[in-house]
Amino acid sequence: MAEPSQQVHHIKPADLEAFVQGVLTGNGVSPEHAITVARCLLMADLRGVDTHGSNRIPSYMKRIREKVLDPTAVPELSQTTPVVASVDGKNAFGFVSAHMGMERAIEMAKEFGIGMVSIKHSNHFGMSAWLVDQAIDAGMMSLVFTNSSPALPVWGGKSKLMGVSPIACGAPAGKERPFILDMAPSVAARGKIYKALRRGEKIPTDWALDKEGNLTDDPASALEGVMLPMGGPKGSALSIMMDVFSGVFSGSAFAGHVTNPYDPSKPADVGHFLVAIKPDLFMDLEDFKSRMDYLYQRVVGSDKMGGVDRIYFPGEIEQITRDKRLADGIPFTRAEIDALNEEAKSVGAASLKFD
Ligand SMILES: NC(=O)c1ccc[n+]([C@@H]2O[C@H](COP(=O)([O-])OP(=O)(O)OC[C@H]3O[C@@H](n4cnc5c(N)ncnc54)[C@H](O)[C@@H]3O)[C@@H](O)[C@H]2O)c1
Fold first, then answer.
1. Which long-range contacts (CB under 8 A, 24 or more apart) does 341-346 make?
2. Residue 307 located in a structural domain
3. Any atom of ligand 1 within 6 Å of the Cβ of 166
4. Is the CB of 124 within 6 Å of ligand 1?
């Protein structure tokens, strides 16, 4: 039997969404922006990306209180060419700026086949897949890049320089599941280490080095050290790629200068790069969809290696989790619920209901 702080309770998605909106508006976020942020966090919670969902609320609210994230800022959109736009995030929530950017990219893609949006002076936007989903809901393919604060050494280096910046992209399908790739270029996302720390768990020893450069299973020591890139120089190169497209190109911070979300000294200045693409540029939409369905069937129907029961398409495990959590609720430990309710109490918002 788990100790009380680690006991798991299932929260109804609608209760969680309303709770998060209440905490956000209590901290000065406009109702419109609170809806966007709460929905994006809920999408991560539903897809099982617990590291990038509502549990991040305390750290985001801390940044508002420290005056390094502006809850009232309204990002500004400028049109550069008919298929290119930019957003100055003005230090608003990354969710708000990126949502606005993807909305514009989709509009341009509907009209001209492709839409590209560069975003600067933004903040962490959590799980990239919510942007891929936003595009898929509009019937679009997408590329979703962001940079992030230093957490990885570059290949051959020993101190943090590049971010664990996820690379994400997607494509709609017909009757099968869409393709949704969303992966950090580290062995594991740093949020998984924060989650292990919160839950008092150990981490696998191939995730990170401690500050002396030794392998560690202790999340606190790992957070003082460096994450390990996946695939050695290849993971390191992907992280540099995210910085080229999201940081250098946009006019935001880059080359190790994005502020860590837990550093209260200055705004994060994150950059993002979003592309929406109409899938029927080179063939009928029905042809495209049936080719995607065929690809799905070939992938999941592939011969299985020993010990594997089922092969999944990228994004499929998260979609199955979402279906389950929509029905059963989202699991949170009591310690996580208490931390969220502390936030609610501090601004007089309604607390999170749980059984
Ligand atoms: N905004 C930021 O700065 C930031 C930084 C780091 C991570 N993140 C987020 O953290 C999340 C976690 O990233 P991650 O790299 O740990 O993800 P992950 O390793 O859990 O998954 C990576 C990809 O592999 C696919 N996948 C996983 N297991 C699979 C299997 N058995 N079969 C087929 N496909 C499979 C997933 O669908 C996903 O597309 C992402 O949502 C990412 O956007 C955000």
1. 342/58, 343/23, 343/57, 343/58, 343/61, 344/19, 344/22, 344/23, 344/26, 346/61
2. no
3. yes
4. yes
